[in-house]
Amino acid sequence: MNRFEKTVKTLDQLWPDLQQGDPKAIHEARKLTRKVQAQLRIGSAPKRTKRAWRDLRRAVAPVRDRDAVGQHLLQALKELEVPPQALSNFEQAWTEHRARAQAEVALPDLPPAVKRPKSWKARVKETLCSDAHELLREAEQVFQSPSAEPWHEWRKHLKRYRYTAELTGDAPEALLAVLEQLGRLQDAQVAQTILTEEDWVPQYREALLRREAEAQRHAQARVRDLWPALKEHLEEQQKSCDE
Length: 243
Known about the structure:
Layout: H1 3-19, H2 23-43, H3 47-79, H4 84-103, H5 120-144, H6 148-165, H7 173-197, H8 205-241
């Protein structure tokens, strides 16, 4: 069984837990949809197949984002040494809110398998070459933008590059390091939105907002520090296209 065929089998195994809203299953399913996205690009899959996997990713994304934010906020409250009762109240309220959010999730039908195309390794290399060029160009705009949205879009494109690279080997460590920081950046942005729009621990809200804003700034600074290594890799990828 090749890796293209394994995707649906893996999802099939996750499906019962996914239907129950298990956090680990939701996290794994979301990652799986990203892997499949890379396969779909290589395989030139039908629109209905692409749509089915896209719908699954969109269905689980809000709950997964909340799961990640909940972990950050819980850790932050512990660091603030809030009273045990306040911590317990937060955990209970967050769990109840998550259950309601999960109840509203409408999972699509199990998506179809992705067929492995002919000459797929050559297609992977060609796609990576094209991606490298676009990612380098995009980075220049991202680093100059004061808006969060370009950073978020760049992260999605880097993740797509990662999973495409992993079709034939391992993703470079320089890429994984940048993605880790961009993931924290995204969590911080989502956390700030939730804290601003919803009524969570109002007596600690400002402290939590400051913490997440600082996490966002730190993550952006780390990405800038890590970027030269990733830039070098992407430039090497471009050079390999001309060989």
